[in-house]
Amino acid sequence: MIRYIVACLGIALLSLATLSPLPTAAAEATSSSPQVERISGSDEFAVAAAAAKNFPSGQPVAFVVSVDAHPDAMVAATRAAGINAPVLLVNTRSVPAATREALTRLSPQRIVVVGGDGVVSDGVLTDLRGYASTGSVQRVSGLNRYVTAAELAQKFDRGTRRVYLAGGHGYADAMTGAALAGYQGSPMALTPKDRLHPATASALRHLRPQEIVILGGSGVVSSAVAKKLSAYATTGKVTRIAGVDRYATAAKIADKFPASSSHAYVALGTSYSEALSAAAAAGKAHAPLLLLRSSSVPKATHTSLGRKALDTIHAVGTRASIPDAVIRELMGGTTPPSPPPTDEPLLGGYLGGPMERPDERFRESFGAWPDLASTYYQAQGRGGGKINRAYEQARIDRGTIPVITVTPVNGPYSMKEIGSGAADGWIDYWARELGNLRGEVWFTLDHEFEVKLNQGKYPSSTTPLDYARAFNRFQARVKAKAPNVKFLYWYGHHDREKIDAVGSRIDRPDVIALDPYVFDHHSGRTTFEQMAQPKLDWLRSRSWYDGQPIILGEFAKDTGHGEQNVEDFLTKLRPRMEALGLSGALYFSRNKSGDILADLTTSAFPDARRAFGASVRN
Length: 618
Fold this sequence. Notes:
Elements: H1 8-17, E1 25-27, E2 35-39, H2 44-51, E3 61-66, H3 70-80, E4 87-90, H4 97-106, E5 110-114, H5 122-128, E6 136-140, H6 145-153, E7 162-167, H7 171-184, E8 188-191, H8 198-207, E9 211-215, H9 223-229, E10 237-241, H10 246-254, E11 263-268, H11 272-285, E12 289-292, H12 299-306, E13 312-316, H13 324-332, E14 346-350, H14 358-366, E15 372-378, H15 389-397, E16 401-407, H16 415-420, H17 424-435, E17 441-445, H18 449-454, H19 464-481, E18 485-491, H20 496-503, E19 511-514, E20 517-518, H21 528-540, E21 550-557, H22 563-570, H23 573-580, E22 584-588, E23 591-592, E24 596-597, H24 606-617
Parallel strand pairs: 2-13, 3-4, 3-5, 5-6, 7-8, 7-9, 9-10, 11-12, 11-13, 14-15, 14-22, 15-16, 16-17, 17-18, 18-19, 19-21, 20-21, 21-22
Antiparallel strand pairs: 1-2, 23-24
Helix pairs in contact: 1-13, 2-4, 2-11, 3-6, 3-7, 3-11, 6-8, 7-10, 7-11, 10-12, 17-19, 19-20, 21-23, 22-24
């Protein structure tokens, strides 16, 4: 009998549990079935250590990866779950206390570090030797994630029944698939979306599997790659497990476990480090891993859990990642209601900083307050800049959502420093200030990073990985303290290679923002749709895009194209945005010499101004 039901007494106990100290791995339900057990800690390191408590002392091997190394985590998951090994986390140059304590208890015979010395230093390797009972610490580091995953996959016996294959740019399918591969004792490899990586092909030739199973849809591993794979399966059989998003894919993977499964693991679908810890623990327990949102249990996850005869659901993650409300929803076992109809797209603009009275001028020019209003705060000096809290709160009070960027392009910290933790005090200032605002705020660490990098505003040594690490650290610390904040990944669109490099490494943001423009050198007849549609199509084709709302962080048409063209461009924008699937847009009503002339607040373009005003008001 399916037992995804919990008595009200269990929910009452959860309420009491929130008044007690944070549990590391404590059940939060009564003997009713299934109980929900938190595997938790104060941060990712403590969560991984708590998950490792399920593994016995004298463990043959323990895996170690950097907390910032998303690709290495994917690789570690593909192997650790398959051989019932724990995975612990370190910083690039230090071993945190929680990890030390876990390794002391585990006393593994051997430690395998996944990743090069750029993510786990040689000093850390030396430190780790004191925790391996044989003193053996091995580094596994190929040229890239595909080579490393292939090397680990080839440790399985030739003639294996099945090999799982995940896309190399989306960690969620690899993590949830690792639990299934571990349960079945199957190897797992990675490949780019549009080509079979040579190292992966070599591993498949060595393994000679009867069947190859692709994890994820064609947006992760293309149909062209799927066709090529049949040559590597001895039976020619290639199948795919895929849902409409990472949550549905995880549910379909979980459905491959027996209905009699008594345990299931859940983790936040946007935190690869916690999903990694959960994948290793699920592999050890021969249990499925499903994914949660930070605010709810996805319907696909609910449905899959309901198909199992569960005794215990293990929720792996910090309380910031999996709030008590989500635990209560898991305990209740009820399917969440369908989401309400999507609101009409939001319109607003950028007219300058708070001292320029941008919203007041927006209202004077266009006849209404903006739905969205952006502000850029320059973080000068080691204090990190200051927010104009009174102005941002006034925006919220009149129904405007502030879209706030803090940019360290001229200081106080480099991206490397932010990502390493050297700027945590500065990040926490912003977390406190944003959390003190009474209402919803959209926020990002800088915007158009790749544009600024190409313009030389950052040192040439700065890389997309540096930005991704800084972004992830900023997002995690801000959202832990400021639940009213939605985080944006905001890019400029032109350098797609760098955008992909960032997008594939950051933890899932709440909103994606991009900046399309119709510049003076473009055709004056370019429509709003012609400007936006190709850029939206490209974004939606990326494996790292996960269905988030999309906004135009800035958009404009140069007034040099003539008032009639600009008026047509801005007429009846909301229905046109809705048809494109846009959730919002901010008009860049500024004149920027040498770049774009788009200020509609002057008397020079009355018809274009009226057209945009009508779009804002209707």
